[in-house]
Amino acid sequence: MRAKLILGMAIVMGLITTFLFYNHMGNYNAATVLSENTVKVVVANREIKQNEKITADMLSHENVPEASVHPESVKSISDLENNYSTTKMAKGEVFLKHNARTTTEESLRVSRKVKEQFRAVSVGVNFVQSVSNLIEPEDYVDVFASTKTTDGNKIETILLSENVRVLAIGRKMIEPVEGEPYVEYSSVTLELFPDDVLKLVHAEENGNIHLAVRSKLKTKK
């Protein structure tokens, strides 16, 4: 009787051992397959701002399961270098092809920068009217208009619009980066409501436009 009991326990233990072994091997094989079927994709290794120039030190590769890779994922860091981000990228976020564009593409898509309900309008400026060509994209300016009075004897200057966003200078639509060569320009593109566009165009046709740059510094209260 005792021998039969021992034999039964041995059989049960053997079955349990066999089950555990095959279960372990199954998990091991699944993990091995998963590790083998991965693809390297490019991710941001720090936060990247919208319209910021992308450099190699901002990027890194990360292995992800092949089954979860987006078809538009960027796989080579060189494909993104010296491009500009089209949106804010969080640290660790995978780059898709539409998350970056070249300088040429940037200069052709002003419609992407204009906020809803606004319009983009360009005005001609000279060296003085553009604050010595020191205005840059994403600055904010006040717009002044100078016209002759009806009798033609005096010049009248009025504040036409305040805190206006600069979308572009010439054909440049991105903020300057360190070491970028200086380029003169003769036009500035502003973001205005339609009614303000009408006032600006009328004022430019009948006089001169001057722009005054607003400070970006935040004063503590």
Describe this structure in words.
It is a single chain. The chain is α+β, with helices and mostly antiparallel strands and 221 residues long. It folds into two domains: 38-101, Type Iii Antifreeze Protein Isoform Hplc 12 (Alpha-Beta Complex), CATH 3.90.1210.10; 113-213, no CATH class. Helices cover 24% and strands 28% of the residues. The protein contains three helices and nine strands. The protein has helices at residues 2-36, 103-107, 194-206; strands at residues 38-44, 59-65, 84-85, 100-101, 119-124, 140-148, 155-169, 187-192, 207-213. The strands form three sheets. A five-stranded antiparallel beta sheet has the order 5-8-7-6-9. Strands 1-2 form a two-stranded antiparallel ribbon. Strands 3-4 form a two-stranded antiparallel sheet. Strand 6 and strand 7 form a beta hairpin. 17% of the residues are buried. The model has no long low-confidence stretch (mean pLDDT 84).
Task: Quickly list its features.
3 helices, two-stranded antiparallel ribbon, Type Iii Antifreeze Protein Isoform Hplc 12, 221 residues
Give a brief rundown of this model.
This protein is α+β, with helices and mostly antiparallel strands.
What is the alpha-carbon Rg in Å? 31 Å
Structural class: alpha+beta
Beta-strand percentage range: 25-35%
Question: What is the number of domains?
Answer: 2
| Average of per-residue pLDDT values | 84
Helix count equals 3
Q: Mind describing the biggest β-sheet?
A: 5 strands, antiparallel
Poorly predicted runs are none
Order of SSEs: HEEEEHEEEEHE
**Number of E-type strands:** 9
Residue share in helices?
10-25%
